[in-house]
Write a sequence for this structure.
């Protein structure tokens, strides 16, 4: 039955579809084909998450080889939740890409974009669903190599420099991760994640395992762009095509955070990571500057995609701060923010793409008077901005509320103040856009500016609307995040 093979299809479908895009070669047909594949992936992830919630974890044996000898695909509550995030963003951005890519990328390169996009989606879904540590590295490389291609397709020549910088830092991160996995394999003789979790406690006291833990932590922090290992991120988001910026900002770093959770909590365990090793302190000392410095630097950016990129550095800080508490409430806030940030930041980058569609770029000077000319696009930016700030009735408020609760639960009231200061800094950089759009007059221009096309507005508002809906109706997101947090904390006990 097809339903029995859904975990494999989740990865195999976009993997097979990627080279087919190059064969079809007609941009419009390729877009429709890629959209169809992304929608199927979304349907599969919804079905898998539903099955996990109702019946418990799903284990799929590749080629009927029983784990740990064979490769296992495994879906539990947290992997099902992240699969939903990635496939949902993948489908919405692909809906947007048809019109956007037509405008931003030369016709002979458009099929290459869709092929790289589906390969990137394959890699990200594979990282989340696999139950094998080495396969995480393999899928990480698939997603990374295709990401470098996506970034390099930006029409600004600086996109090539950004892609090269990302390539160098991404390769460093992947090398560290591979060394860490190799050291674990040397000590345990297994690569299956659940098998590793059972065998690692016997060798936890060895220097080899401590070295593996250190290599993995640094490598994953490079991939998730945690301050000060974030240098590849601003240029990559700023100069990539609009669709690529939206997709990567909403998925790539989230999947890297999932990998961190999986290694730290499932394999090494809470006691080793946060009591024997100083994981909590290290993450906290990196997360707090990420929030404050990322938000401060965002204020001074003239390129609005760069501004949102530095904002992402700060938002990653919030997620890591929640994880650093090593408590159910802290983990819940971090996992919640994975989903919530994907919605609001994806929506904001899509809205910026609508502005760049007419303006050719999205700099602060392009925003003058846009509140009157592009009311729906600007409304999306305002709502997304309110969510970034953490205003009630938006998803951003829910994440920050749980983060403050986690801080106060452990008596860290100064950290609750840091969260508040981060929100106030977000008010400043979002206010710059509001002031330019609603309180400045339109400057005379040769470019005819009007509202963004419906094919760009609808996907934008799907994400922005979802950031309101899930800010009010929190049953699904909080419920799944809390269960995933309890499962991860239990895995380490």
């Amino acid at each position: 039955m097809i339903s029995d093979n859904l975990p494999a299809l989740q990865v195999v479908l976009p993997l097979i579809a990627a080279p087919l895009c190059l064969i079809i070669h007609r941009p419009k047909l390729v877009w429709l084909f890629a959209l169809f594949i992304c929608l199927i992936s979304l349907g599969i992830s919804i079905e898998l998450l539903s099955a996990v919630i109702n019946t418990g974890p799903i284990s799929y044996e590749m080629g009927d080889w029983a784990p740990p000898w064979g490769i296992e695909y495994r879906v539990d509550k947290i992997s099902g939740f992240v699969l939903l995030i990635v496939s949902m963003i993948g489908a919405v951005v692909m809906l947007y890409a048809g019109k956007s890519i037509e405008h931003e990328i030369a016709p002979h390169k458009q099929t290459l974009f869709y092929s790289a996009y589906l390969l990137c989606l394959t890699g990200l879904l594979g990282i989340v669903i696999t139950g094998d540590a080495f396969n995480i590295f393999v899928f990480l490389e698939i997603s990374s190599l295709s990401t470098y291609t996506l970034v390099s397709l930006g029409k600004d020549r600086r996109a090539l420099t950004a892609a090269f910088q990302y390539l160098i830092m991404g390769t460093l991160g992947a090398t560290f991760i591979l060394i860490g996995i190799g050291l674990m394999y040397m000590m345990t003789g297994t690569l299956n994640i659940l098998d590793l979790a059972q065998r690692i406690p016997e060798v936890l006291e060895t220097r080899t395992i401590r070295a593996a833990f250190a290599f993995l932590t640094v490598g994953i922090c490079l991939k998730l762009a945690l301050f000060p290992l974030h240098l590849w991120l601003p240029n990559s988001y700023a100069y990539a095509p609009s669709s690529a910026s939206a997709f990567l900002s909403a998925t790539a770093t989230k999947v890297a955070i999932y990998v961190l959770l999986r290694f730290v909590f499932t394999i090494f365990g809470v006691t080793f990571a946060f009591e024997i090793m100083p994981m909590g302190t290290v993450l906290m000392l990196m997360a707090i500057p990420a929030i404050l410095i990322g938000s401060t630097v965002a204020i001074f950016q003239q390129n609005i995609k760069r501004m949102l990129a530095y904002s992402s550095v700060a938002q990653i800080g919030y997620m890591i701060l929640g994880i650093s508490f090593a408590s159910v409430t802290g983990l819940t806030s971090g996992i919640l923010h994975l989903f919530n940030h994907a919605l609001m930041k994806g929506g904001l980058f899509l809205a910026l793409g609508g502005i760049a569609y007419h303006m050719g770029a999205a700099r602060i000077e392009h925003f003058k008077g846009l509140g009157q000319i592009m009311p729906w696009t600007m409304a999306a930016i305002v709502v997304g901005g309110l969510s970034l700030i953490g205003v009630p009735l938006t998803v951003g408020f829910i994440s920050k509320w749980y983060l403050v609760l986690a801080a106060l639960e452990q008596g860290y009231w100064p950290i609750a103040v840091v969260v508040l200061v981060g929100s106030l800094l977000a008010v400043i950089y979002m206010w710059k856009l509001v002031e330019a759009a609603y309180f400045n007059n339109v400057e005379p221009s040769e470019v005819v500016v009007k509202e963004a096309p419906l094919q760009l507005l609808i996907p934008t508002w799907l994400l922005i609307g979802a950031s309101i809906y899930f800010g009010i109706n929190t049953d699904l997101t909080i419920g799944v995040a809390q269960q995933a947090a309890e499962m991860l904390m239990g895995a380490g006990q």
User: Anything to note?
Assistant: The first strand starts at residue 58 and ends at 61. The longest helix spans residues 328-359. Residues 180 and 212 are 4 Å apart (CA to CA). The chain has a mean pLDDT of 84.
